[in-house]
Design brief:
Distance between the termini: 35 Å
Number of helices: 9
CATH topology of the largest domain: FAD/NAD(P)-binding domain
Helix content: 10-25%
Strand content: 15-25%
CATH superfamily of the largest domain: FAD/NAD(P)-binding domain
Number of domains: 2
Largest sheet: 5 strands, parallel
């Protein structure tokens, strides 16, 4: 583990930004392809957001995986025997530390070292570190994650109590004796509601749209491991799974949630049914969308109001690559427009890893991204014919990666893909590049 950076032949290396799941995947893939690199992590150790000790970590003490270990883990690095189906943040931290040790990645990383700026300089990239030093690199791999920059909406009026984003939330002690409103019913928001009911005086949740709630277990097995052997056509799968959810969890509308104005899988589902139990027990009340703040009053769009002491914004995150100008990322509308969400149309030495989300994509899906990237770099350096053709193809439009699903037009869905469709494309490209 290195903390003091000394330049050594950087012009023949790639710089990897981040040591979370995507960064570690990139580091492993580069190493396996014999491509030299340095890794930079602003935190104290590997793990990214799953290392609660890192300054940019947005996990909380009670956080657990929302996908099961078998769906989430790296194929060649399974979680230790005895790991629960849905491990918590402390176990995930240890998993990534073990992963980095297994693949010899620590020797390449510099910790407590942020990247302040990257910009092209000739055919290289100038990388400015947090200590002010600037080094030229052969290429850059951006892998700092997608869940670090809070999305904080604007509201009419002023709230006299405390407002915080879930990115800063760590444990339920802050709720003791308070009247709490959680805004947003994504996976973090629902987790926090469940935490809060055990400490708060009152807990409400405000939502704008409807959600699909998926239980963690079906027939005693992790829900994402059930039924995978049978591949149903998209429309039939949506119809069948929606019916199954109503059998297992009931209709969320009966719990006070709006009816979704989209079909299942067109937005990320909520893997939490404990919140429905607490609503059913009267521990939590569902409120409509926010109209305005007035002192400690919160007015809702249905004309009602309640008073609160603390508002928790569980309103998601924005893509955040603060060290590079958007013009160098081919940023279009809500996110960078990159081939397969990885490759820049023009630069052959600038890549983004981890800018992907899908139900069940897991860490293996992210490693496959990294392997494709590293294989392309190696094949292009060897002037392989398929790599040259791929270089031209990445300048054009993406293949359809949606699997036919009509995803919501939201910023967090702008890089969403259909797991099987995406992974099949990536694996096919790897196979062709390796020939």
């Amino acid at each position: 583990m290195q903390s003091i950076y000394k330049a050594l032949n950087t012009e023949n290396k790639f710089a990897v930004i981040g040591a979370g799941p995507a960064g570690l995947s990139g580091a492993r893939a580069l190493k396996e392809c014999g491509i030299d690199f340095d890794g930079f992590e602003m935190g104290v150790d590997v793990g990214g957001l799953w290392n609660i000790n890192n300054p940019q970590s947005t996990v909380y003490e009670s956080a657990h995986l929302i996908s099961s270990k078998t769906t989430t883990e790296f194929k060649d690095f399974p979680m230790p025997e005895g790991t629960p189906d849905y491990p918590g943040q402390a176990q995930m931290r240890e998993y990534f530390i073990a992963f980095a040790k297994q693949y010899g990645l620590y020797a390449h990383y510099f910790f407590n070292t942020g990247v302040n700026k990257i910009e092209p300089q000739g055919d290289k990239w100038a990388v400015t570190l947090s200590d002010g030093n600037v080094y030229l690199y052969k290429g850059v791999v951006i892998a700092n994650g997608t869940l670090s920059e809070p999305n904080i909406p604007e509201f009419k009026g002023h709230f006299d109590g405390e407002i915080m984003h879930s990115a800063a939330y760590k444990n339920a002690e802050i709720f003791a004796g308070k009247r709490v409103l959680v805004i947003g019913a994504g996976n973090s928001g629902c987790d926090i509601v469940v935490d809060a009911v055990h400490r708060a005086k009152k807990v409400d949740i405000s939502v704008r749209r409807g959600y699909y709630f998926v239980p963690k277990y079906i027939f005693g097995k992790p829900s994402d491991t059930v039924g995978g052997a049978i591949k149903l056509p998209r429309l039939l799968k949506q119809m069948v799974d929606n019916k199954l959810l109503k059998w297992f969890t009931g209709d969320p509308v009966k719990f006070g949630f709006p009816k979704p104005d989209y079909k299942i899988y067109e937005s990320h589902p909520v893997i939490n049914t404990l919140i429905l139990h607490h609503i059913g027990q009267g521990d939590v009340k569902v409120q409509s969308d926010i109209d305005r703040f007035e002192g400690k009053k919160v007015w809702f769009k249905d004309g009602s109001f309640e008073e609160y002491d603390l508002i928790m914004l569980s309103t998601g995150y924005k893509l955040h690559y603060p060290f590079i100008d958007k013009k160098y990322l081919n940023w279009q509308h809500l996110s960078p427009e990159l081939y397969l969400n990885i490759f820049h149309p023009e630069y052959d030495n600038l890549f983004v890893l981890g800018m992907i989300e899908a139900v069940g994509i897991g860490w293996e899906g992210r490693y496959e991204q990294a392997k494709l990237m590293a294989t392309y770099i190696k094949s292009l350096s060897e002037s392989k014919a398929y790599a040259r053709r791929f270089k031209e193809r990445k300048k054009g439009k993406n293949p359809d990666m949606s699997g036919g699903y009509n995803y919501l037009k939201l910023s967090r869905m702008s890089y969403y893909v259909h797991k099987d469709t995406y992974r099949n494309i990536v694996k096919k490209e790897i196979s062709q590049l390796e020939k």
